[in-house]
Amino acid sequence: MKVLALNSSPRSQGQSKTELMLSHLVEGMKKAGAEVEIVNLREKKIKPCTGCFACWTKTPGICIHKDDMSAELFDKYRRSDMSVFASPLYHYSLNSVMKKFIERTLPMNEPFFVKHQGRTHHPVRYPYPKTVILSVAGFHEPEIFGPLSAWANYVYKDVLAAEIYRPGAEAMAAARHGKKVKEILAATVKAGKELTETGRISSETLDKVGRQSIGDLDNWSVVANLVWKTCIAEGITIKEFEERKIVPRPDDIQSFMQIMAMAFNPEAAGQIKACIRFVFSGGVAGCCHLAIENGRVQGHAGDPETADLTVYTPFETWMDILTGKADGSALFLENKYRAEGDIDLLADLGRIFARP
Fold it and tell me: Is the pLDDT of residue 303 over 90?
């Protein structure tokens, strides 16, 4: 089986969730014996269809544009047994790069108006390959793909082999090395094998790919919003945020506890059993505590019964320390904040709450 896998994501260098899913699907296809070519459309020059219909009249079956579509991609598409359209979800549909490719497949049809099963359509000049739609979205609800699915089923009704949709893709990328994400990617590999071997994907496999939960997505959304706020405040892009390994800046006590939970390093914590109390003043006032035990941390609002370490600090001062804008040791010596209890534990915070 010859498969043409088209990736229309503009992102690369590990940023693309579309590419992540597609690479695992292709892995499964190859394991089952398929001959697969991946084409990154961002690297190709494809002019938009101008609606001149020359491919129907002057040069039947051949587009008059001289670009990578006419010179290379159209022929590969029409000679493939199966094509995969892999695109991030933009405005509830395929992105413009993929749409340009699809619109330039107009020479696959002839211009005449005929009816088939009550629908007017253009007769086929070249048989269409079996079609797979793969898309990812940042939103968490599977229903987000409804408009795309309706379009795919209308346009490719007779050749649509499978639809693979992954919501919560940003959360999946953030937890890429977690158990649940590994299960999702393993199911995507299995989907590729099933497609090659049977021409379809089982409902069980599709559920594992598209509906398996990654975790508490509501909490993840809070952190994601902090990332966006931090990028806006710093005047940087998401890519720059990731490259510079910036810590998102909490703006209240609840989000502070969530960021600390995400930054917790169980290996560094080892056998530590401790309760750390924070008493915040200034623009955000209140208290919370972090309970560390058995390689886990739990954040709680309010005061604990007892605490091994209590940190008294203006909220903004501690957030400067947390995000690397200030040196915690220097500020402590300058009496910008104070601590009571196990001071050695205070010195260990940077190690315990820093992912390796």
Answer: yes
pTM: 0.86
Domains, in order of start, for the chain: 2-210 (3.40.50.360), 234-352 (3.30.1050.10)
Distance CA 55, CA 150 (A): 28
**Beta carbons of 125 and 108 less than 8 angstroms apart:** yes
pLDDT band at 221 (very low <50, low <70, confident <90, very high): confident
Find where tokens 């043409």 sit: 4
Say how far apart CA 297 and CA 103 lie, in whole Å: 53
Q: Shortest CA distance to 57 belongs to which of 1, 12, 96, 110?
A: 110
